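User: I'm preparing a small set of examples for a lab meeting where we compare how different chains pack in three dimensions. I only have the primary sequence for this one, and I'd like the structure in token form so I can line it up with the others. Please keep the answer compact; I'll paste it straight into my notes.
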Amino acid sequence: MNKYAKIGIVAGVVLLFVLLLYWFGGKEKEQKYVSDNWSETYNPADKGPYGTFVLKELLDTAGLFGNFLQINKKLEDQLEDDPEVNDIYFFVGLENYLSYESTDFLYEFVRNGNTVFMSCEYFPTDFLYKIMLDADSVFAPAEPLIDSVQYFKFIHPSLSNKRYKSEFIFNNAKSTRAWYYFNMMNFDLYGDDTVYALGENTKGQCNFLKVKYAGGTIFLHSTPYLFTNISLMKRNGFEYAENILKHIPPGRVQWDKYNLRNHAFDDNSEGDGTGGEKRQSILQFILEHPPLTWALFVLLAGAVLYGVFKGKRMQKIIPAAESKENTSLGYINTLSSLYQQENKHYKLIRLKEKTFLNFIADHYYIISKTPDEKFIEKVSVKSQIEKEKIREIFTLFRKFENVENVSDEELILLHQKIEYFYKKCR
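Assistant: Understood. Below is the structure token output for the 426-residue chain.
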């Protein structure tokens, strides 16, 4: 690389550095919402557009509820049931990942006279089947409604006159999304349980209902977007969420963060304290902090310059060492030919037996100097060759063990059976 090429590369890196400085440092950004992180976390600690920090603050200040608890473990390990108060299991998220055991525990919690409030687009199947005859048809229509704007209302006479407009915002712009609604015609319950529609859109599609179950109450809500920070920052959205909370009887809220994500395949899912929070990648964390972002740019620029000026080899090329050729098979083939030419078939059979046992040991890690029925069975399982075929090979080995005069036909028969094993084995 000549002198002028290096100067051009350095100039290009400097120019790129200046452009990045202008883009990330000097350019003013219009900040319409809490942050630019548009991932749907529904986490009460998240102040981003799709977090639920504002809802948590509303619960703390609404005056309807007592102590506010957060669930960061399995329900059976942390959900409390105080006989003196109405305990409220509270969940808001895209999907609730309740396990089968947690579902049973939650229904026992309701039977004791407590309350469940669950707002999500994907409800736990086991949870729905506990109260419904046909949980697969809980939503109507089968496909969700795709739109950018919806108008909601409540059925209670004192709230039915107000309409609440909700726009879906993504990347600071109005966008379309899927809106889910319950199919009240298919909401058939077991036993004496009863269901009541509490809220709907202006087309009569229900998104908020109440189920009287045993001694407690279950509230189901199918549009969790209405509880996000970006929705509650608008007057309509805040009033809507406030009126939703008025339907829930006063008590102690226990907010489930743990089941915001699926813990089924976690190696350490108990007591990790994450509460279902979505972990950021290292790159996301770096780009969210300007000092770390600039440090990354400087590191990359330094790596480019180092590659340009120090990329040449500092010593002569070391020739590759020749790999040693494995001549074992050639040796065996040569030795076999000699035995065959001398008509010493019994020696050739001994060699074949040793080679066959070595093949089994190398491929299947089964070693035995005196193959028995158990050995044959293990080889059959691992090689997928019938036990009878393997037994025939060792039977011939034993047959020719003390015989010096072995005919060509017998040697060919043994060879054919061994070749069949080599070709067909896994």
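A couple of notes for your slides: The longest strand covers residues 194-201. Residues 26-31, 268-277 have pLDDT under 50 and may be disordered.

User: Perfect, thanks.
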